[in-house]
Amino acid sequence: MPREHGKDGEFVETVSLENVLDVFDAVDGPVILSADVADTLGCSRETARRKLNDLYDRGDLDRRKVSRRVIYWIPEDPTPDTVGRTQEARDTREADAGEDPTPDRENPVEDGAESDPVEDVRAYLERENVGPKTAHGRDAVIEVVRLLRDRGPMKTGELQAELFDRFGEHYSSERSLWESIRRAFEDVPGIEDAGYGKYGYAGDADTREALGK
């Protein structure tokens, strides 16, 4: 990943929008995901999403939500319907090859281990009618638990970007999505305030204890 020292002495990413557009030549098919940009350019997925959104905002790219992911394409390329079918075919090829088509949703639970605490939290929310009342709102809360468990403490902005990638079709902005779900966090086992604008995962043991398991 191209990086250089910033004014504060820390490394900063210097991925250009032109670098992102070049990714179309590096992947199989007319569409790309933020994961494609991150993998090809060696940058973080947050940076990839930000650059893709910049290209979308200036009209260089169009985008559409397919399943749980947002796909991007150059407007003069295939129509959205064709793009959706292309991405679905790509996922099928990955599945046939034994690859996980959604690598950013890995689950670290080992075979033979206890039940997945994230799914236990989902069952708890549904059983106790806790959190958002809409299915997509509840799914967004569960995704917060999953992200924090998989990646560790995350900043509010990072969570907002991740969630809007997955559930943006239901909300007008990242802020509206966040405001609709964050009030439920104090009632959701597993989510804890990590301070300094961050959220963290309480750990499997504490989460299961809060669930009464």
UniProtKB/TrEMBL annotation:
Bias type Acidic residues, positions: 109-118
Source organism, top-level taxon: Archaea
Segments of this protein annotated with the region Disordered: 76-118
Annotated Basic and acidic residues bias: 87-108
Name this protein carries in UniProt: HTH domain-containing protein
Origin species: Halobellus salinus
